[in-house]
Amino acid sequence: MKKSALILLFSIFLLHSCANTSSEEKTPKADAKPTNSIGLVIHGGAGTILKKNMTPELEAEYKATLEKAAKKGYEILQNGGSSLDAVEQTIHILENSPLFNAGKGAVFANNGKNELDASIMEGKTLNAGAVAGVTNLKNPISAARKVMENSSHVLLARKGAEEFAAAQGLEVVDTNYFFTEKRFKSLQRAKQGDKDKAAYIDPYIKDYKHGTVGCVALDKNGNLAAGTSTGGMTNKKWNRIGDSPIIGAGTYANNKTCAVSSTGHGEYFIRAAVAYDISAMMEYKNLSLQEAAKEVIQKKLKNMGGDGGIIAIDAKGNLVAEFNTPGMYRAMVDEKGTITIGIYNE
Length: 346
Ligand code: ASP
Known about the structure:
four-stranded antiparallel sheet, binds aspartic acid, single chain
């Protein structure tokens, strides 16, 4: 009797421990691989940004806004938030600042409107969302995220994208919200210099096409995310869409490799598949993030005649900002929270 009771107890114990093992096995692998390393990089556009054209006051304003955005993203990551949340919230700060060519402060198209593009991508699932040519959404990066999470599509454009975002409860603003004197004057100057060429190939306009914003981040669960938001290029025509809402060109993220956000002459970034190419060089050629970024920005893109840069972070938390222009507004935050801000090529 005693023996059979013991056997029964032992069998119950065995059953119980088997059940525990199988539930542990069900835990998704990606979540079970925390890196304990976090990091974030942001950019506010690349271009002919020269110290001699900058006042100390304006420089201080740029730096303060970059710092505020970087701190916000780091705080989210530090508190265990997702890289997607960090990217979206950080970009909100840059979109809401008139200093950058995204959201408030976006450049004007030839038709006198602000036509905004944005995209976001998650490295764990390779899910992505984007909007192009939207004119009344306060924060296009959030519209991109809604497309990713709440639609079965990747890229929505113009009126349809606006209707979708409004139905998702995102803030719709009067188109006047995007007006800034500085950008409006840039359009007038661009039109004077416009000899029936598209703005982006007129060297005169080159000076006016920086300011796109982007953010890449790595969270405590080892998940990467990237996002980009822009007004595109001054004096753009025919509902031109740049690289910023194009997954693989303006934005890319893959937990196996890195997260990238681009800024520069969009047509070249699309043709060179810049963001994806950096990831692919890491995946297939085993290059480090820094090597891959250098190869694509300083060789491939430059040889094609394309100017601009990227920010990126890899799955281990290495941070990179690579550009072939005189400057790029940027800030990096490492895992300890140390913020490094840069504007020129120094
Ligand atoms: N890449 C953006 C575009 O071509 C512009 C920029 O980054 O300044 O629309």
